Amino acid sequence: MTGIHILIADDEKEIRELLKTYLERETYVADTAHNGEEALRLAEERTYSLIVLDLMMPKVDGIEVCRRLRQTSNVPILMLTAKDQEVDKLVGLSIGADDYITKPFSIHEVIARIKAHLRRYKVLGSENSENSENSPAAEKALTSGGLKLDLKTFTMSKDGEEIALTAKEFELLKFFMTHPEQVFTKTQIFRQVWNSDYLEDDNTVMVHIRKLRKKIEEDPSDPKRIVTVWGIGYKFAGERL
Question: Response regulatory domain: from which residue to which, for each copy (predicted)?
Answer without folding.
Answer: 5-118
